[in-house]
Amino acid sequence: MANGDKKSTLATKWMQMRGYLLTALVTVLVMLSAQRLAHMNVQAFVKAFVRFIQEHYDQIEKLLTLMALALAWKQFADARAHKKELGSISKIQNESAGNIAMSVTNINQSVQLVKDHLDGIRANIQETQREVGILRSQAESLTDAVRRLPAFVRAFSRQTTAMHTRILPALDRIDHSADMLILRADIEELIRFLLSDIAHFAYVYDGRNDARYAANVMMFIPRCKTDLSNPFPKVDQAAIRTFIPEPFGLNYLKGILVLVEELSVVAQPEGAIRAVKDDNSARVIFGIPEAAREERRWKVFPGAPLAFVKWGEIFSQDGADLREAVQGHDDLTRLSECNQEAVNGEEFEIPREALKATVEFYQSSRHGEQVKSFLSFPLADNKFGMPFAVLNLHCDRKVFLGVEGRDPADRQQRQQIFAGMITPVVFQLADVVKRWWEISKDKYC
């Protein structure tokens, strides 16, 4: 039976039973009234009522049953309606919870977007501040250059004029038939004049009146391949082992760079009559291994060794620039860290014993006290372009050609500009040193 038919039948039964009940109630009321009116005794009334109940018992029983069923059905319907209402409320609650969760998610996303935007703004501000710092540094460098440039240009012009009118012509006038010692001494004097001029260029370019600049030359001595027991027979072995200690095998070296103390001077004021030897110079020696680099890491020291090796790699390339091989180092007290920290963008892996020995030398010697920063130039053969020596310029300040506290990139740029400006003089020096080496190398190798 359909749900609609069930409801219709129940409604009909309910109407019938309601009629029976009303009939019974009316009868009782009539009887009560009659008793009141006719003074019916109570006993007779009770008997009449009982008889009425007996006569209509079936109808009364059905009425009560239907009433119970109707009440149960009403409770069931109310329960279903309540359950439906609860379901709707639960659904609304779930939807509300979902909406709230979605709103919270959207709020969190909005907060994150705002945070990211603020981070972007902060990064832009920091980048702007960095760029402003670079511009300020460049402006200060430009101001310094403009301030120093007139003095440098004047000194450079006078010194190069003197080179071409006095020093180089004097080289041509040297009596090559004279005693070899006299000839060597004369050329050494000319080299010292050139070194003094170059050191003076650095002093003027620097601009610090109390800075001490000096210059020296290191010669490359190739390893003797015929004597494995003594690959450098004319160089003091104790001096070599000061910088290249045991157990490092000397036969693994391509050669060594040796500082020539006779070719070491201190910068003198402009117009000085003679060059002054650097009394603090020492016989410094650096090893040049056969394999100077392993992947990206150099096995030679920054400065003179690296300048020598790099020019050997690039001199034959088209458009080779001497400045690409020029190598320097600010704050030599940090030399011990070069295996951990890059120097001017170059990475190193120097043998630990050699690094330790060299650091100890610069910390304890008179020469080391005067060398806090330096710049090294390869000296190239004018016939073949190959490196055969190195020019070193060094300063008693931790920053070479600069002011402490400046950005390292700015200091390196200043050094590169200086290197480019004196490149012609460096090649002239190389020509004179080459002549000296031709008559002096038998003393060293």
Major sheet description: 7 strands, antiparallel
What class do helices, strands and sheet pairing give? Answer: alpha+beta
Helix content: 55-70%
The N- to C-terminal Cα distance equals 125 Å
Q: How would you spell out the order of helices and strands?
A: HHHHEHEEEEEHEEHHEEH
Number of DSSP helical runs: 9
How many separate structural domains? 2
Low-confidence stretches: none
Number of strands: 10
Query: What's the rounded overall pLDDT mean?
Result: 78
Query: How large is the share of residues in beta strands?
Result: 5-15%
Shape from CA axes? Answer: rod-shaped
Q: What is Rg?
A: 54 Å
Question: Main traits of this protein?
Answer:
single chain; 445 residues; 2 domains; seven-stranded antiparallel β-sheet; 9 helices; 13% strand
Q: How would you explain this protein's 3D organization?
A:
With 445 residues, the protein is of the alpha+beta class. The chain has two domains: 3-98; 174-443. Helices cover 59% and strands 13% of the residues. It has nine helices and ten strands. Strand 9 (373-380) and strand 10 form a beta hairpin. The radius of gyration is 54 Å and the shape is rod-shaped. The model has no long low-confidence stretch (mean pLDDT 78).
Question: What is this structure, in a nutshell?
Answer:
By secondary structure, this protein is an alpha+beta fold. It is 59% helix and 13% strand. The termini are far apart.
SSE layout:
Elements: H1 3-38, H2 42-55, H3 57-173, H4 180-206, E1 213-222, H5 237-243, E2 253-266, E3 276-277, E4 285-289, E5 293-294, E6 297-298, H6 304-314, E7 327-329, E8 347-348, H7 352-364, H8 366-370, E9 373-380, E10 387-395, H9 408-440
Parallel strand pairs: 6-8
Antiparallel strand pairs: 1-2, 1-10, 2-3, 2-4, 5-6, 7-9, 9-10
Helix pairs in contact: 1-2, 1-3, 3-4, 3-9, 4-9
